[in-house]
Amino acid sequence: MPLYEHVFLARQDASAQQVEELTAQIKGVIEQMGGKVEKTENWGLRSLTYRMNKNRKAHFTLLNINAPAAVVSEIERLERINEDVIRYLTVRVDELEAGPSAILRKSDRDERRGDRDDRRGDRDDRPRGRRDRDDRPRRDDSVAAAETETE
């Protein structure tokens, strides 16, 4: 059977429990139609790059699916009907990723790094739009000419 990675975005107003119920409903449809869900990842509430249907954030969920194409078309049909789903994307892959996805690996790495705000120094104190070279004192041409004459 073909392998798919399926990601859907649920509205920011939906609670985590509602997203889990929606995920369980989709998994039930997949298994009922003869498919298998290899892995499920909840990426949590994340900011969107741009507003979609008046939402600035969304709950992201990834499903790794091993199922026929008819199953994928059915879950996409159900997601089009469901008002809680903002967007979805299904991609056919050659093989499924065994470990955690890149999104979860990045969030784990960020947690291990800890809070790095201490290292910023006073970069945030500078007015925006100015560069370091604008803050340097400029040498007057007469001073530069005088220095070259003494050398």
Unreliable parts: none
SSE order, one letter for each helix or strand: EHEEHEHHH
What value does the Rg take, in angstroms?
Answer: 26 Å
Instruction: Supply the helix-strand structural class.
Output: alpha+beta
Number of strands: 4
Give the percentage of residues in beta strands.
25-35%
Q: How do the strands line up in the largest sheet?
A: 2-3-1-4
Number of helices: 5
Sheet of most strands: 4 strands, antiparallel
Shape label = elongated
Structural features, described:
With 151 residues, the chain is α+β, with helices and mostly antiparallel strands. 37% of the residues lie in helices and 31% in strands. A 4-stranded antiparallel beta sheet has the order 2-3-1-4, with helices on one face. The N and C termini lie far apart (81 Å). The model has no long low-confidence stretch (mean pLDDT 81).
